[in-house]
Amino acid sequence: QKEVEQNSGPLSVPEGAIASLNCTYSDRVSQSFFWYRQYSGKSPELIMSIYSNGDKEDGRFTAQLNKASQYVSLLIRDSQPSDSATYLCAVNRLTGFQKLVFGTGTRLLVSP
Amino acid sequence: GAVVSQHPSRVICKSGTSVKIECRSLDFQATTMFWYRQFPKQSLMLMATSNEGSKATYEQGVEKDKFLINHASLTLSTLTVTSAHPEDSSFYICSASQAGEALEQYFGPGTRLTVT
After folding, report:
1. Residue A105: its pLDDT value, please?
2. SS3 A16
3. Which residue of B22, B25, B63, B94 lies most exposed, with the fewest beta carbons within 10 A?
4. Within 10 Å of residue B11's Cβ, how many Cβ atoms?
5. Does A88 sit within 8 Å of B44, measured CB to CB?
6. Does A34 contact B42 at a Cβ distance shorter than 8 Å?
7. Cβ contacts (< 8 Å) between A44 and chain B: which residues?
């Protein structure tokens, strides 16, 4: 079982729709969760961080965390073609030296 | 805020030579810097973690003598790829974490290395 799992996609949504990206993690004691956006050929950009159960909203983005079920999700409202990118879920690893573990990413395609 | 720069953005070198990549945090002090490698259509692979003034911690399978990391100040870390070979061609990305930030990492723009 991978430490952080994401569906590789692509997830295709029409412009204006809600895109829902999911991520599950295996380390139950993980405390910090992040979503990064990576455009093709570019480096990742931090878009959301979440540390406690529930929802966290920032503009068109909402991160949701459920520690009991060990999943974290990202909702993108009013999706735009410019949102087309790969979205990486990252989870901190508390065992051993603290560092982030990344999922392989979900590719999102927003069609005009 | 939280801007990280990398230099160079692209480099082409001949097999057997060494290449140095710089990573700078421009508007904050980075207590920890990370170096990643990413091959086409694959996810990020952490190579090493470095704290200012101490030796880097390398991930399993990463040769410390081949990938030399120096974190001499709170704003600068360097990665030197020694005796580069074509299989080292990749996208190298650094990230930095501020003191007190709960592991939020801010990434540099990356360096695309091509070894001929």
Report:
1. 95
2. coil
3. B63
4. 17
5. yes
6. no
7. 44, 93, 107
